[in-house]
Amino acid sequence: MIRSMPCEPAPWPQGAAHLPAALDAMSQAALLAEVRQIIAEAPLYRPQMPRSGRPFSVLMTNCGTLGWVSDRSGYRYQEAHPQTGRRWPAIPQSLLQTWQRLTAYPELPEACLINYYAAAAKLGSHRDADEEDVAAPVLSISLGDTASFHVGGLARGDPKASRLLHSGDIVILGGPARMAYHGIDRIEPGTSGLLAEGGRFNLTLRRVHRPLPCRPAY
After folding, report:
1. 7 contact partners, CB below 8 Å, separation of at least 6
2. Number of helices (H), then strands (E), in the chain
3. pLDDT tens digits along 122-169
4. What tens digit of pLDDT does each residue of 110-135 get?
5. pLDDT in the model for residue 6
6. DSSP summary character for residue 98
7. Residue 6 to residue 181: CA distance in whole angstroms
8. Cβ neighbours of residue 89 under 8 Å, at least 6 residues apart?
9. Where residue 217 falls among pLDDT bands split at 50, 70, 90?
10. What are the Cα distances from residue 171, in Å, to 3, 69, 117, 189?
11. What is the DSSP pairing of strand 200-206 with strand 138-144?
């Protein structure tokens, strides 16, 4: 009898990193409590696709000095929640510390996009291209049910490699992979007990503006 060998995950493009179980159970629970506080101040809402107004399958909100939004007029960053008109809550210190520890980027993120995926939600292949500072990496944290995540190349039609992201996993897209196409193909309901309501939160930390150039001292 020939036993099949376990398959190695397909390689990701250079600059893409998957850090399994980067957050332990206690850290996940603490971060989830902070996410709940953010949502209490800046409620989840359903964005729309530009021009068509077709609703996303994910719900979203933000924290930070800027938040990413999408509606009929297009994609953009803005300082206030599109429904409440209030400024976004601050990014929790725990997330800023995670950014500093794992990216070594000299500037802090300005935005943290929070997406909520219910059982049937997904996010088509896209790239994060609305930021000026593409030298900064994008760091994403998974909380809750397992998701099938794919990452490809710089063109939409490039081959894609998929992996399962579990609660507590972190993904970093930087360097050559900063502008790679990526997305969520499906959620696997019931794979985590972290969220009482089920589903998955994804937190994506982004630097939006380029750092200001240093002025010489006189």
Report:
1. none
2. 2, 12
3. 999 999 999 999 999 999 999 999 999 999 999 999 999 999 999 999
4. 999 999 999 999 999 999 999 999 99
5. 45
6. H
7. 27
8. 37, 38, 41, 42, 63
9. low
10. 32, 22, 17, 21
11. antiparallel
Total Cβ atoms within 10 A of residue 160: 20
Q: Calculate the CA 83 to chain-centre distance.
A: 21
Q: What angle do CA 42, 205, 50 make, to 5 degrees?
A: 65
CB 72 within 8 A of CB 50: yes
Q: Tell me the CATH class for 16-206.
A: mainly beta
Tokens matching residue 95: 């997330």
Contact present, 61 and 39 (Cβ < 8 Å): yes
Give the global pTM.
Answer: 0.92
* pLDDT higher than 70, residue 57: yes
Q: Is 15 within 8 Å of 53 (Cβ atoms)?
A: no
